[in-house]
Design a protein that fits this description.
Keywords: Transferase. The chain has helices at 3-16, 56-69, 87-93, 130-144, 149-161, 208-222, 237-243, and strands spanning 26-30, 33-37, 45-49, 74-79, 97-98, 102-108, 122-127, 166-173, 176-186, 191-199, 227-232, 246-256. The protein has two domains: 3-102 and 251-256, Aminopeptidase; 113-243, Gcn5-related N-acetyltransferase (GNAT) (Aminopeptidase, 3-Layer(aba) Sandwich), CATH 3.40.630.30. It is α+β, with helices and mostly antiparallel strands.
Length: 260
């Protein structure tokens, strides 16, 4: 895989050419940025910015004014290769708070090890209805110790309005949900994104996450997608590398929350 060429495709198709990621979301290019505006439970933020921004501070201030006017917290999705240099420092100076760094990892499905099956006693079930979404949300809350109300609502809306662009799965030990994940498919780009892979603490280290990556990868191949993309944490990166994913750059979410 030509890393530079694939990164350029990623930037062009999924960032500069971004599409709304759910019902009620709108993507627009405004001057030097591409941003998404969504309902409060959706993702709001800047997904791409022009490398030749003549006045980055002014552009940042414009986005703060826009999203603050809507009463929305928002994210500026910054990648390690983004220009101008020092953009992260400018965001921090403007009041954004950086969240933990992740690694953008991409795999060409032709070279990935996607044959992994779940360990004994675990079955992977596709999610297609409200009950299944509830299981995914339950796993998310236990795995990440975070409220999943937004995920429950967002996933239900995607399954109701655009089911061909989202795949959700849950891993069950008997009838107990122990891991869950989703995949977002972007038609016409060749890219599918793997998101939300989480395993309940006492079930970690058994190969369940790896099996869910492989399961989603096989679905992507069946649907004609060439590349799988993941924003990988430090914990998931080694697993993904063993499956054949390559680390292309870093990514840091810079979050701005309006004063109450």
């Amino acid at each position: 895989m030509d890393h530079a060429a694939v990164l350029a495709l990623f930037d062009r198709h999924l960032r500069e050419g971004a599409r709304p990621d759910g019902p009620g979301a709108r993507v627009e290019r405004v001057g030097a940025v591409v941003r998404q505006t969504a309902p409060a439970h959706g993702w709001n933020g800047v997904v791409w910015s022009a490398p030749e921004m003549p006045d980055a501070d002014a552009v940042i201030a414009e986005q703060i004014a826009y999203f603050t006017g809507l009463g929305r917290a928002f994210e500026w999705k910054l990648y390690g290769h983004d220009l101008p240099a020092g953009l992260g420092q400018r965001l921090a100076a403007a009041g954004f708070v950086p969240e933990p760094d992740e690694t953008l990892m991409i795999g060409d499905t032709a070279g990935l090890a996607l044959g992994t099956e779940p360990p004994a006693g675990i079955r992977v079930v596709p999610v297609t209805d409200r009950a299944g979404v509830g299981l995914v949300a339950d796993v998310h809350e236990k795995a990440f110790d975070a409220d999943a109300a937004w995920l429950r609502r967002q996933l239900l809306e995607r399954l109701d309005h655009d089911p061909d662009t989202v795949v959700a799965v849950v891993a069950l030990a008997g009838d107990t949900p122990v891991s869950a994940a989703r995949m977002e498919l972007v038609p016409g780009t060749g890219f599918a994104g793997l998101w939300g892979g989480g395993t309940v603490r006492e079930w970690r280290g058994r190969g369940i996450y790896r099996a869910l990556v492989a399961y989603r990868g096989r679905v992507a191949v069946d649907r004609g997608y060439r590349y799988l993309q993941v924003d990988a944490s430090a914990q998931s990166r080694p697993v993904l590398e063993r499956l054949g994913f390559a680390a292309l750059t870093s990514t840091t979410p810079y979050v701005y929350r309006p004063a109450r």
